[in-house]
DNA sequence: AAACGGGTTGAGACCGGTCTCAACATAACC
DNA sequence: GGTTATGTTGAGACCGGTCTCAACCCGTTT
């Protein structure tokens, strides 16, 4: 009497109706038993669940979303998942999401506004319940407005955005940069370069310029703070952007071999620091004797390189986790005004800072 | 006459019907214009598109999937997105997917069968068109069968699975391990440990044991090949598994300080190598004088650590990309028998190998 | 003038769930 | 015994798209 197990391939999916028919009940009742809602007698429930099992029923989450309007899915848009910073933040968010019963859809923006727009469009089309975004630009915020206009909760992480009514979770970048730079200034350096891959239309950086990435903008502020406090004039000229265009190693080489070479570098992230480190080695320069180097993010290599690199560690995992928590709260209906959470960074001193040799 | 732009929040989504009404055409016609299929006169199309724009229409991808049966979405299940290997493979897959118009849904399995089952269940419920999986186990394959039974194309990457009818993309791990180990044997080492975090029920490893992760199993084979070729007897006793349970650093410390300390270590991945590197430093051992170390994967740090670590680099990006390509081909209806693509690894010799000092 | 053909359009079923509402059975109460 | 409460079930609308099919318009052909 028992039927053969579901076999073959390519055949139609088993639906609630199929299960209902097999169990000899109505579709509504079968749905109640399968979806675990409403009232169903124990006998019927067993019968339905048995039939479902026998037929190999798998619920269709999309159909469910269609009728309930909730997908139990969050979207996350990062610059590049290959970047350890984003990988860690994503993991932090994924864990919180999973614990709360949410799935995660991931997209890369490549830090490009158009790609970001496409990614956000896809996420909205998939009716995510809310969106986590490391905004490609803190200034051009139309992509973010799209999310808000669509009525979807939005939480920004790592970067804020001007005039966008959304929660954000960021690190205390300005004070972090200040502290990091002070280390160099206090060691006696005057020729200190700040390097970032953030794009900037002008060749030179001016104090009033607005940078597209708020986290970098804040680090630049902190850098300038410390430089100014150290009595260094016109510190803006030591800010070097667009490092991706020129190539980090090339830029570092240029700064280290020019007419007025730098004796210390603040790297805006660990990938940049890696480029600088390689360039220095290539040039035969010894850290910290010939060059002092500090950076953001406690990447793997910074601890095992020789010498160890002094870094400002960020609570990356927490940034992602906290952002996901805020988002889930919004999804669940929290209507309080937007908040900005600022997480502390902490200094890990290693051996990459010394007084300048010239 | 012009209406106010779509405003407010929380209101119903704009649907095809709304657009149709605003444009004064039927739902069917509006859908044709919006979905760019079927025949629509230019005049009507303009009218519909104009109305859609005015109302802020955003298509509902779920509804589309419901009626077409296609989601244009691939699922990917990795061990842990924070692991650079998986991050890179994911990126490779994401790029290929995006280029072909597919989105990606990501899940972490934590290398755990139950978590993997849940992840795959979610992906299937979301009706992904196909699934990319780095199987948590190459032996217990019920989770993978679930995918096949559901009639969804499946492509495995990094690891194969016994008796599962699916394409796979892996690296030539056995020959890679052989080459890596030979370096040590040829340098004169006899006490060489192979370390992996792969789980294994027994305390000791026996040649006939089947390991849960095929990539590691193959590396062990290659290791044994080279050890045997080098005339080392009972090389199995040098295979150390379950490193996660004990802790990599702890295990390395134990192996380096025991009664019969090892003089060389083959690390099954870069994370393990990092643990070994740290343990060695902690013990005051110098690489390569006191310990020779080789590993899989050309992680960032292996190039900048002192000394540089000799590694077997894998084409990680390509593994992900190739897997996605195969999957998309399957999704599009390719019915050829399953293939296994084996990608070459290549050796990067640095300074972490020297003859044993004892 | 009738028949034919292509281009356009609309009505309505369908995908697979949820959910409202009414119908009915049975038990509890007065 | 009648009324009310409670539990269980089924019919059918609904979510927002796609798609089939029939109807219609208008120009051509015979």
Q: Could you name the key traits of this structure?
A:
homodimer; 358 residues; alpha/beta; Rossmann fold; 3 domains; 6-stranded parallel beta sheet; 6-stranded mixed beta sheet; 12 strands; 43% helix; 14% strand; disordered N terminus; DNA-binding
Whole-number total of structural domains of chain A: 3
Summing up helix and strand content along with how strands pair, one would put the structural category of chain A as: alpha/beta
Most extensive chain-chain interface: A-B, 52 and 52 residues
Q: What is the CATH architecture term of the largest domain in chain A? A: 3-Layer(aba) Sandwich
Strand order across the largest sheet of chain A = 2-1-3-4-5-11
Can you tell me the CATH topology of the largest domain in chain A?
Answer: Rossmann fold
Gyration radius of chain A, to the nearest Å?
Answer: 27 Å
N/C terminus separation of chain A: 92 Å
**Helix segment tally of chain A:** 14
**Shape by Cα distribution of chain A:** elongated
Task: Describe the sheet with the most strands of chain A.
Answer: 6 strands, parallel
The low-confidence parts of chain A are 1-10
Query: How many beta-strand segments of chain A?
Result: 12
Order of helices and strands of chain A: HHHHEHEHEHEEHEHEHHEHEHEHEE
The percent range for strand residues of chain A is 5-15%
Q: Approximately how much helix is present in the residues of chain A?
A: 40-55%
